[in-house]
């Protein structure tokens, strides 16, 4: 009998593998996506910046963990870090855009306030005669304040050499699908010409027109169809003119039409009393 007894061999259980720690990479990707989307809106530049920094740090940390074998989502972590960097860039761009817009708005308000104060002090808001055409100069103030009512063909001339002219009303037949016309009423069209003889651009898109008809001053609705109703649009460069044709709906017995044209917020509105 052998001196040594052979011990039986039992298979050993495999050592459990360490669980992958992918939390950093996944969190970096999520925060990077949210940060990049926030950066698309300039107002949320601060949120994009905060999330971008966190995503960048967590993404780099997750990538380092993956290199050491502690995680398996190296690509996800790298994507999160890249999105974090993009969020930071968009945050800076958004901040610049937002602050510039605020500065421009403040400058515009200050200019409008200064112009209004200067006009009231100098009395430029009053009407005056300008050769053959009656003119009205000045910016700011209430519409029609100390202003002369103009007649057909007269021009309102402002201190910045912006000139607005309204023609005599002409009878108009609205189209079949016209908007603003009431059956039994009459319609008249008025041609308005804006001449920018100044040195600065004029935003014609801010021009508005209103009208009242008859002795009672009943509001005359503006008519829109395929021929009339197209408003002023775009910017009017110095030395250029723009023309628009307005049509208004009036009671059948109205004998006059008062048309009010307001160039923009910094110019007084001007009125024309037109005989029908």
TrEMBL record:
Every DUF4352 domain range: 182-266
One Pfam family of this chain: DUF4352
Biased composition regions of type Basic and acidic residues, renumbered to the chain: 121-133
Gene3D superfamilies, per the entry: 2.60.40.1240
Bilayer-crossing regions: 20-37, 43-63, 75-99
Superkingdom in the source lineage: Bacteria
Region of interest (Disordered), residue spans: 112-145
Keywords: Membrane, Signal, Transmembrane, Transmembrane helix
InterPro entries: DUF4352, Immunoprotect_excell_Ig-like
Protein's recorded name: DUF4352 domain-containing protein
Record lineage: Bacteria, Bacillati, Actinomycetota, Actinomycetes, Kitasatosporales
């Amino acid at each position: 009998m052998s001196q040594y007894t052979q011990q039986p061999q039992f298979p050993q259980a495999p050592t459990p593998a360490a669980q992958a720690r992918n939390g950093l990479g996944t969190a970096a990707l999520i925060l990077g996506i949210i940060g990049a989307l926030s950066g698309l809106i300039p107002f949320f530049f601060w949120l994009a910046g905060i999330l971008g920094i966190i995503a960048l740090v967590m993404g780099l940390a997750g990538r380092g963990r993956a290199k050491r074998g502690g995680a398996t989502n190296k690509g996800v972590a790298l994507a999160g870090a890249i999105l974090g960097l993009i969020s930071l860039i968009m945050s800076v761009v958004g901040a610049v855009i937002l602050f510039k817009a605020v500065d421009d708005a403040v400058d515009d308000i200050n200019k409008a306030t200064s112009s209004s104060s200067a006009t009231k002090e100098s009395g430029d808001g009053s009407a005056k005669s300008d050769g053959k055409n009656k003119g009205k100069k000045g910016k700011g103030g209430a519409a029609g304040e100390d202003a002369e009512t103009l007649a057909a063909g007269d021009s309102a001339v402002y201190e910045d050499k912006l000139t607005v002219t309204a023609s005599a009303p002409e009878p108009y037949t609205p189209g079949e699908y016209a908007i603003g016309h009431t059956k039994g009423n009459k319609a008249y069209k008025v041609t308005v010409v804006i001449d920018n003889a100044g040195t600065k651009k004029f935003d014609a898109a801010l021009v508005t027109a209103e009208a009242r008809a008859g002795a009672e001053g009943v509001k005359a609705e503006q008519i829109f169809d395929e021929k009339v109703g197209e408003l002023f649009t775009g910017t009017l460069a110095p030395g250029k003119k723009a023309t628009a044709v307005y049509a208004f709906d009036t009671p059948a017995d109205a004998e006059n039409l008062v048309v009010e044209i307001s160039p923009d917020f910094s110019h007084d509105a001007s009125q024309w009393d037109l005989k029908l």
